[in-house]
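At this stage, I put together one protein's amino acid sequence and its backbone structure tokens, which the following lines show:
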Amino acid sequence: MKADSLKSYIETLQSQGVYWFFKEKITETLGMTENTFVKASRRLISQGRLAKIYGGFYVIVPLEYHSSGCLPVSWFIHALMAYLNQPYYVCLLTAAGIHGSAHQQAMAFKIMTKKPIRKIIAGSVRIEFCYKKKISQNSYQSVKTASGFMHVSTPEMTAFDLVHYAHVSGQLQHVATVLLELAEKLNPEILALHIKNDEVETPTAQRLLYLLDLLKVKIDLREPEAELKLKKLVKKILVPRSHSQVIEYNERWKILVNEIFELDDL
């Protein structure tokens, strides 16, 4: 099979609105040898027509995205995670941006999954992964994309994750700013449900509710507070990775405050 057949095939896929393929599938379909595929794909990558994302997963790059060297991640992330056979959702600052928080722009497209996966760099596109043991269907919602849909953490899970992975998203001041912008979309019943179902760690819930209380957001915290108090609460440091000394103790949420930020700066 001629190497040019790969170029023709991806043009056919693109004309059908398909922008990715698996090497194993396409070599079988075209009857290509491994060596022929490698040579053909390398040539198309050098021409900006293809980008290798992970293993045998490739994306087709339309002309309008040649300068970035890759498709937008939202176009292919659901297919990529299916290829990796991993549950997932778009998370942290990336999810916050989708929910309307534009104050802190994510430098990389953040994905939550159930096992460690190395970061992916393709052209100017960067995908970084966090992981947790449990990803429930309550954690995310489907959001339409240019080529289908993707899973994005709900505003409530986004808030919990921002606090739990605060060291990934920047300083606590940054997280607080994003929480202020997310606040109008937070549903206290859903916050309570995540706590009740053990879908978030108790210390994470303590820290989030403390911050929401401190920020004086217009959310009735009584329901999530009631669920939290059914747990075994112990005193927790507000910022675990900080070397700052404890400044004060908040009895309501049992938080040892070791970092202060200026609310006027938010």
